[in-house]
Amino acid sequence: MNVSSVNPTWSLWKKILFRFVFLYLALQISPWTWLDITGQFVNKYYSQLLGWLVTLSNTYLYHVRPVLVPLNGSGDTSFGWAQLLFYLTVAALGCLIWSLADRKRPNYIQLNYWLCLFARYYLITYLFIYGVIKIFALQMVFPSLHALATPLGDFLPMRFSWYFIGYSTPYQVFSGFMEMLAALLLLNWRTATLGVLLATAVLTNVMALNLCFDIPVKIFSAQLVFTCLVLLVNESRRIINFFVLNKPADTGSIYEFTYNKKWKRVTRIIVKVCFIAFALAPRVYQSAKQYKAYNAPKPNLLVKNGVYEPVSVIVNNKPVQLLLTDSLLWQDLILEDGTGSIKTGEKLFKRRYNRVYFVYEIDSANHTFVFKENVDAASVKTITLNYSLPDTNTIKLWGKKNTDSVAMIFKRKNRHFQLAERQFHWLTEYNR
């Protein structure tokens, strides 16, 4: 087993820096959880232990927040920042102890090989995950009817960026292809250097988007870029010679591991095949399945999709004047494939972008229209109104809403959105 023919003595600062980076990346990558396929043993108890240690350290050291919010749809919660501080603290203390206990070791060439190996596969995993979902154009979807009808200024920066990318399927597929290409190049040690360079460019752009559009994956994307930089630093002399100084670059050796025995070479191939089969291939299958479901023919709905505007509102048997300044008025009603939203200041359900969002069900037998809060919970807030359809473009709703008796008539408006046209012109005579 020969990692490198060179066996130099590292400087003191290089050894100290390596120890810190090794410990930090080990905590970040957590390779001991990779083999826990079920997620019920190592992952479960490791997560519980990590959560307890992070909470304890935050209570006595960091004080990010009195009560930490766990990681959820956001990766930048108070727990996420406390966890980052915990990793840095453990890496610093571990580096100090390691430096005192292992002062005489000349270098960590073999240990650095394993660090780079796991760092490569850590990057491969996430580049592949995000690359596949983008290739199927599932991470950022085309703006819905609700989004198209929402004023641009009402969107938060993250949602704005999501629709910016989701608008163009070719651009999203291209982004995913570049992530997939970087992952595939990283799989082979001969092309790993090119893979790291490409991954650094791709992930730096992702990190910039997260930072500039306030997307709550800042910590994780920065950690992926940091992992790329660790790999690049290992080859910094070769890269600078080739790209900057116009000098011959030495042959790379940090990813090469020569096995002298056949069974070791065979085992290496088997492990890589298993990684591809059990870690990467299922992502393609899952994304293809989601793509098929997303693009499946929509069921024929009793009520047409579209933007409906109120033409008559009666509350407690008294007609209501339809004023846009009335914040409690349902200023529009948008229905789209079983989901809906209302532009109103009334706190019916969860509000986003000055709208309330819901899912709906229509009981044609009892002639009821059920508005349901779009949450997966045992008890879901609902509003049930009676309905009738005088014609294909008209909905009449009446019944009890909160403590009021209401009767509302909505007309479907032939609303045209230029953004939905997905325009593209090779020849453009003027700036549009």
Automatic annotation (TrEMBL):
Q: Does the keyword Nucleotidyltransferase apply?
A: no
Transmembrane feature ranges: 16-34, 84-101, 121-142, 162-185, 192-209, 215-233, 269-285
Q: Which UniProt keywords apply?
A: Membrane, Transmembrane, Transmembrane helix
Q: Does the keyword Transmembrane helix apply?
A: yes
Top-level taxonomic group: Bacteria
Q: Residue span of the signal peptide, if any?
A: none
**Listed name of the protein:** DoxX family protein
Instruction: State the organism's lineage.
Output: Bacteria, Pseudomonadati, Bacteroidota, Sphingobacteriia, Sphingobacteriales
